[in-house]
């Protein structure tokens, strides 16, 4: 039996243990303070104890200080399996935190208690990002249990704060512990994918979130001539912002959708009565921009359109950036892309293709620092939805693919 067949057999023998680990993790809600939670420490400690019980001996914590949570820290945990060579490290990076459940009435089960049904596990976080976490753990565990040394050192990285900006997770590590990573390392983030596991994400659109606060003059609904309708001005601005999809009109088939998007989203309440002309309006925009355009180009165009609305309606508009990020792409021919594609082919018989996405992952922060990172998994993409689930078979298959990656010379 080949080394890969040994690992594959071992991985499949742990199906019940995979369900048990998913259940353990889900039972420890890891919500950021922004989402009304107390951070990830309890979940991290439960995972750390599980890893020790199952033979992982090389465990390190890199905790980010955060006064907002009771423990005063946000944990980042690394489990290491030494390889034949330290020329590079193969990283499998998953996040510990989850998002809130949303309305419980939309769930068919208790979101904090895993329910197994028809080959699926239901619960908050089971897919995002515990599926990738568990796949990485059991791929590495199979190495330990079978006494097989991987070609290169493997490190499982379990990070905090992915859902709320990564300041206490990967960005903290890149700032305070930059020596952890090297440019030759393979960095895999199993936090996005497709139902077949055939897409390797190598690029993300630039992201820009903005808040537009329009200040006019409130008046009676029958005398709009005596006021300055902030709602009307804000609505016009929303359409002008959306029209930027035509202004920044290039297309790139790597992404879906293949163009830049400028979408008005959140709008705050203004007045309490139908017969009141609003003097105040707050509108948000979520823009996902093709990498061929810089954020400074977008900012300049936004400024022009805001000025035009101010002049037409006699209002003042304050613009606040809520989030902004640019990220280069991992080259399609980067060694990590080729290695992962080869692992997918050898383990699952699937020919993978490279794609870009409009969403954001921790890969962006790594790419900005010059590290080639890829995002891949086999999943139905139920992240943040009620009745979130993952397929047990996907956990197993992805663990097999990771095992194939670990064995590559």
Give a quick summary of the entry:
The chain has 409 residues and is an alpha+beta fold. The protein has eleven helices and 19 strands.
Q: Can you tell me the residue ranges where pLDDT is under 50 for at least 5 consecutive residues?
A: none
SS class: alpha+beta
Mean pLDDT: 97
* Individual helix count: 11
Q: What characteristic shape results from the CA principal axes?
A: elongated
Secondary-structure element order, N to C: HHHEEEEEEEHEHEEEEHHEEEHEHEHEEH
DSSP strand tally: 19
Strand portion: 15-25%
- Give the fraction of residues assigned to helices: 25-40%
Mind telling me the C-alpha Rg? 24 Å
Distance between the termini: 18 Å
Please give the order of strands in the largest beta sheet.
1-4-8-5-9-18
Biggest beta sheet summary: 6 strands, mixed
